Amino acid sequence: MATITRLPFDATHLSDFQASKPAIPERIIAGRRQYRTVWISDVHLGTRGCNAAMLIDFLDHVDSEKMYLVGDIFDGWALKKRFYWPAAHNDIVWRILKRAKRGTEIVYIPGNHDEMFRQFTGLNFGGVHIRRQAVHETADGRRLLVLHGDEFDAITMSHRWLAYLGDAAYEAMMALNRWLNVVRRSMNLPYWSLSKYAKQKVKNAVSFISKFEEIVAHEASVRRVDGVIAGHIHKAEMRDIAGIAYYNDGDWVEGCTALVEHYDGSMELLHWAEEIAAREAPESEVRLAAA
Ligand SMILES: [Mn+2]
């Protein structure tokens, strides 16, 4: 099992960490949007794929009584291969610890990329409670199982591309695809082989996603809860599957989404790139879009 010694901070020095200042100062302390609960996952801190600026913006604009970190917050696999830790990634850890200090109850359910934290299940570091799974009770009395989702890889791993999720190899493959496209175009070569390859990948991905969603929802029905909240597959979702409420909070690599619970127990997926675009659009454009 991997150890945490390679991470840029260690749990015994959390108080020093909290005393330091973030490189990107916090904005909008007052007047933050308030929710009962927030779920985020698949941040993949320690990789170039992590959309840290977007998540920092989210954390500075949104607050909640309770926050679940649904796994793959850190990417221990990537950090082990090549150490990558920009100041913005530190700033995210700082912000999460800061809100724990301000009174937000934080439950951290490590995923497969940050499984090194699973050895601390049941412990509490600086107000962050580490759990293997959790059952969340909504304001309208529904019981929702919260888990990362890699528990079901043994069943769904027939689609091997999942192993590349959030991984440098996956990023390299996508970069190579783009580069090949440019070269082929400049040589007047036909495009068909690449598009065929991509289509096959997408087809596999779609069947993998629906299989994952069904298996996770089935687990919820076996556990006799009303619904389930997962991460892992980087596909935000909110739908009914055979009477089970299936939620996936998405990721902060491509989708940049969070799941939130309003004070009446209703749930919503926030697409943060769209929220930022709407906020930054001139007023006339907003009126145009609404018309
Ligand atoms: Mn995962």
What do these coordinates show?
The chain is globular. The protein is α/β, with parallel strands linked by helices and 291 residues long. The chain has a 7-stranded mixed beta sheet. Strands 6-7-8-10-9 form a 5-stranded mixed beta sheet, with helices on one face. 37% of the residues lie in helices and 20% in strands. The chain contains 9 helices and 12 strands. α2 packs parallel to α4. It has one domain: Metallo-dependent phosphatases (Purple Acid Phosphatase, chain A, domain 2, 4-Layer Sandwich). Bound molecules: manganese (II) ion. Manganese (II) ion (MN) binds next to loops.
Short précis:
With 291 residues, the protein is of the alpha/beta class. It has nine helices and twelve strands.
Instruction: Provide the list of bound ligands, each named once.
Output: manganese (II) ion
Give the termini distance in whole angstroms.
56 Å
* Radius of gyration from the alpha-carbon trace, in angstroms: 20 Å
Number of helices: 9
Query: Which residues form runs of ≥5 with pLDDT under 50?
Result: 1-6
| Fraction in helix | 25-40%
CATH architectural arrangement: 4-Layer Sandwich
Secondary-structure map with pairings?
Elements: H1 14-19, E1 33-40, H2 52-61, E2 62-69, H3 76-81, H4 87-101, E3 105-108, E4 124-125, E5 128-130, E6 134-137, E7 143-146, H5 153-156, H6 168-186, H7 192-222, E8 227-230, E9 237-241, E10 244-248, E11 257-261, E12 267-271, H8 272-280, H9 283-290
Parallel strand pairs: 1-2, 2-3, 3-5, 7-8, 8-10
Antiparallel strand pairs: 1-11, 4-5, 6-7, 9-10, 11-12
The structure holds manganese (II) ion (MN).
InterPro entries: Calcineurin-like_PHP, LpxH-like, Metallo-depent_PP-like
Domain Calcineurin-like phosphoesterase: 36-235
GO biological process, one term: lipid A biosynthetic process
